[in-house]
Design brief:
alpha+beta, C8orf32 fold, 2 domains, 14-stranded antiparallel sheet, five-stranded antiparallel sheet, 23 strands, 45% strand
Length: 492
Amino acid sequence: MAKLALILALFLAVAQSAPAVAAEPKAKTETTYYALYINGFKVGYMKDERMAADGRVTSKSTNVMSMKRQNTVIEMSSQETEVETAAGKPLRFDLRQKESLMVMTVSGSVDDQGQMTVATATGGLAATKKTETKPYPAGALMPEGVRLLCDKKGLKPGTKYEYLAFDAESRQASRVEVAVGKKETITLFGRKVEAIRQLSILHAPGGDVTSFVWVNEEGGTLRSEGTEAGMPVVTERCSQSFALSPAQNSEDFFSALLLPCPQAIPDEARKMTLTLKGKNGTKPALLETDMQKVKANEDGTVTLTVERPALPAGQGRPYDGKNAAALEALKPARYVQSDDALIVKKAREIVGSEKDAATAALKLAGWVYKYIEEKDLNVANASASEVIRHPEGDCKEHSVLLAALCRAAGIPARMADGYLFVARIGKQKNVFAGHQWTQVYLGGKWYDLDATLEAPHNSPGRITLAVGDGSENDLGGLNAMGSFTITSATAQ
C-alpha cells in the first residue's frame, strides 16, 4: 500500500495530460470538476482551472482522495500549478502533495536559457529542504502547451501523435502517446452523451500507464478509465456539488489488494516457489533480483523462486566497491535522508565500532523494529527524517528509516515494494499483502532485510515488484500488482 498513492497519481497524470480544453474558452477563467472512482466507489475528486491574463496562462489541478486501509482512512491531496506564456512556453511550476502527516512541496522557475531553479521540501513535522539548478527537459510541455498541441492535431479518427509531458514532482519529462478513435455514446450520470474516444499512454520512468479518455467536440475531457494496482480507476466530469460531496469509504482497499496463496509459507522456510498466472490472458511481468528468479513457462504462466540465504559475514564497511547501483544507494534521497544529523548520530550509536557490514545491518534492523512501537496505519509515506523523530507507522516507515540508517553507516541500502506472505490478516488466511521492506548490498548481492519483522528480519514469502529509494520513479513492476493470481505454491 505504500506506493498506491503514487500509482494513482500516475493514472491521474495520464487523464490530465489529455486535452482538457482544446478551444480558447469564452471567459478568462474556466473551472471543471471530476469525480474520482476506484472499484466503483467515489473516493475523491479532481478540479481543473485555467486562467488567462496579461499574456500568461495559469493552469491549476487539484486532486483529493480519501481511501480506507483496514479501519483507518487515509487522506491524500495534491495541488499543481503551472504558469506559461500564451504560446505555451514554460515559466514556473508549484506542487504540494499531502498524504496523512507527510507533506512534499516543489517550487520552480524556468529562465530564458532553459535552466530551472527548484526548491523542494519533504516532511511534515520534520521537513528537509533543498534547492538546485538544472536544465529544464528540452521540449517538455506544460498543460497550456499540451492544449495548444492537441488543438492543432485535432480530433479526426485515426490521428496519432505524441509529446513530452513535464512532471513537477520528478522534474523530468515523460513521453505521452495519443491515438484518436471514433465517436461513441457514453453514459454520464444516467445521461447519454456523444464523445470521442482516445487512447493515452504515459511512458513514465517506472513503467507505462494506459488510459482511455472520452472528449467532446471541443476536446474537453468527459470521462477517463484505466486500471491501476488491479483496480479500475474512473474519472467523470460532474458538477461542483457532486465532486465535493463526501467520499465513499465503505471498501477496504488494503483488502482489495490481498493475493490468496494455495498454502502456507512457513517463516522458517529457506526457499519458496510459486506459479503465477496473469489475469485476462496477460503474462505476469516480474522483476528479477539476486534473491528472486523468474522463469517463463510455455503455458503462459511464470515460475517465481525466492530464496532466503543468511547475510554474508566478512564484508567491511563503509562500502568501497565500484558497483554503480550500490554507490547510488549510499547517497541521501528525498525520503531517505541519510545525511540528517540525527540519523547519522543514531547510526553511529547503534553500530558502534562494528566493522562487519552484515552484523551492523542486523543491529540497525533490530533497533528499528523496537524503536517504532506504534505500528499502525495512521501515518502514510513519511520520510526517514520524520520517522526518526516521530516513530510511528507501518512497513513504509520501517523500511525508509532502516535504509537511511544503513546508508549513514556506510552500507548500501534501498527499498523494495511488493507482497509479503501473511498467515492471517483479518478474517483471511494464507494471503500475500502489499508490503515494503529494505534491501542491503553485501558481497556483490542485494539481500532482503525487513525491520517490520522480528529477527532474523527476513522470510522467503515475499514477491518483489519494484526497488528504489522511494521516489515516484521507482514504481516499475508495481503496475503488476493485482494483475496475476497464484496457482501453486511450495516451500522448503
